[in-house]
Amino acid sequence: MATTGTAGTGPTTQKPREEWTGQVGFIIAAIGSAVGLGNIWRFPGVAYENGGGAFLVPYLVALLTAGIPILFLDYAIGHRFRGSAPTAFRRIRTWLESLGWFQVMICFVIALYYTAVIAWAVSFFVFSFDLRWGDDPAGFFTGDYLQLADPGVSLEFVPSVLVPLVAVWVVTIAVLAAGVAKGVQRANMVFLPLLVVAFLVLVVRSLFLEGAADGLNALFTPDWAALGDANVWIAAYSQIFFSLSIAFGIMITYASYRKRRANLTTPGLVVAFSNSSFEILAGIGVFATLGFLAHEQGVGVGELEGISGPILSFVTFPAIVSQMPGGPFFGALFFGSLAMAGFTSLLSILQVVSAGFQEKFGWSPRQASVRLGVVSAVISVALFSTTTGLIALDTADQWANNIGIVASAVLMSVLVLWVLRRGPELRYHLNTVSTFRLGAWWQVLVAVLAPLVLGYMLVSRIVTLLVDGYEGYPGWYLALVGWGTVAFVVVAALVLAAMRWRRSPDDFVPWPPFPPGEAVQGAGRTPSAGGSAARRPAGTAGEEAR
C-alpha cells in the first residue's frame, strides 16, 4: 500500500496506482490508441490529394519534427507527475489543472460521436454477408440506414443505429470497469493483433484485383511540385497530429500507468512508426481497391468521388464489395477492421475521462466506468442515433478536432515550456529513465516549431469557419453544435477545476529529483505547485521512486 499525505489532513492510505503489466502491454495499448478510424479513411485520401508519393516527404518531416516530439512531451508529463491530465498539470502548477480538464472534456465530446461510427461499422459488418445495400450504397447509407434529415434538432430515433450504438456502449463500459491492466490492456492484446491480421489479408486480396496497379500508381506517383505548396505541408502536420493521439490527454494518462523506472522514448518511437506503417498499409489497401472500382466503371482513379472520410467507408467501399469476387468476405474484413480500430481508440479516449474523474472524486474504475458510461451513452444515443445524427457528428468532429485539440496542443506547449519553463526538467526526466536520449533540439521543436505550425493551423481554421461556415449548414446550427461544443468544453473544464478534490494531489514529490543531485527531503507539496502544504511523512519519497 502507498502512503500519501493529504494536504491539511495528515497521512492517509490508498490503493497503489494502476499500472500496465509491462512494456509490451503499454506499447500495444498505445498503438491501439493511435491506430484508429483516421488511419483507414483519412490518410489515403489526404496523401492522394497532396502530392501522392511526394506527400511522404512532408509527412515524414512532420512525424520527426512535431509528432514524435509532442508524443514525448505527453509521456514526460504523465510519467513524471503520475496522474491523469488534470492531476499531472496541477502538479506542474495549480492553476494549470483547468488545461487538464479541457483535454478531458475534449475526449468526452469525441467519445460521444466516435461510438456512433463504431456502431455503423458493426452494422455494415453484418450487412456485408448479404450485401444489404444493394445497387445503391449511397442511398442505402443516408436513406435506409441513417434516415438522414436536414440540419436541426431531432428526437426521431433510428432503430438500426440505436441498437448497435447501445451494444457498443455496453461492451465499452464493461471493458473500462475491469481496469487498466485487466480491461484496456487485455482488450488491446486481443483486438490489435486481430486488426493487423484482418487488414493484412484484406490488403493482400486487394492487390490481386484488376486495376489495383492503377490505384497504387495514382497514390504513389509523386507530384514534386506539390512540395512548394504550404497547404501540403500543413496537411502533413495535420495528419500526423490527429493520427498519433497526442495533446489531448491520452498519452499523458497512458504514460502515468507505467512503472517509475520505465523506458519511454524507445517505446515512443515504436508506437509512432507502427502507426505510420499502418497508415501506409491502409493507403495501399484502399487505393488498390479504388483502382479496381475505377477499372470496373471505366474511369480514371482521379474521377472517383468519395475517396476519404465516412463516404469512403460506408458508400465507396460497399460499392466495391458489391462488384468484386468474394465481396461478402472482403466486406466483413473491412468493416470488422474498421470496428476494431475504432474500438481500441475509443477505449483510450474514455480512459482519459475515467482517470480524471477517478482521481478528482475518489471513484474506483468500476464506479467511474458505470457512472460516466451511462451518462455518456444516454447523451450519445440522444444526439447520434436520430435522423440528424450524421450532421451533428460531422459538425462536432470538425470543431472538437480542428479547434479543441489544436488549441490544447498550442496551450500545452506555450504554458508548460514558454511560461513555466519546464522543458529542461521534462527532458531530464525522459533522459534519466530512457535509453534513447534527447538533446536540446527536442525543446526547440516542442517549444518553437510545434506551436508555430499548430498556431497557424488553429488561426487559419477559425478564420475559415467564421467566414465560410461549414458544409453549407445554417449559421444557427453551426453556432449551436460547433461553437457550442467548444463553449461546453471550456465551461466544463473551468467548473471541474474549481471543484474540491476528494483527496488532494498536491502532496507529491516528482522523481527523479531535479536539478540532478538535489536531495529529496520530506517536503510537502512539490515546489512547482506553489503554496504550502502538510509535511510529507518520512519515507514517502522512497515510495514515489519505486
UniProtKB/TrEMBL annotation:
Record keywords: Membrane, Transmembrane, Transmembrane helix, Transport
Keyword Signal found: no
Residue spans of biased composition, Low complexity class: 527-546
Entry keyword Zinc: no
Membrane-spanning residues: 24-43, 55-78, 99-127, 157-178, 190-212, 232-257, 269-294, 329-350, 370-393, 399-420, 440-463, 475-498
SUPFAM superfamilies tied to this protein: SNF-like
InterPro entries in UniProt: Na/ntran_symport, SNS_sf
Compartments in which it is found: Membrane
Residue span of region Disordered: 512-546
PANTHER family the record matches: TRANSPORTER
Protein name from the UniProt record: Sodium-dependent transporter
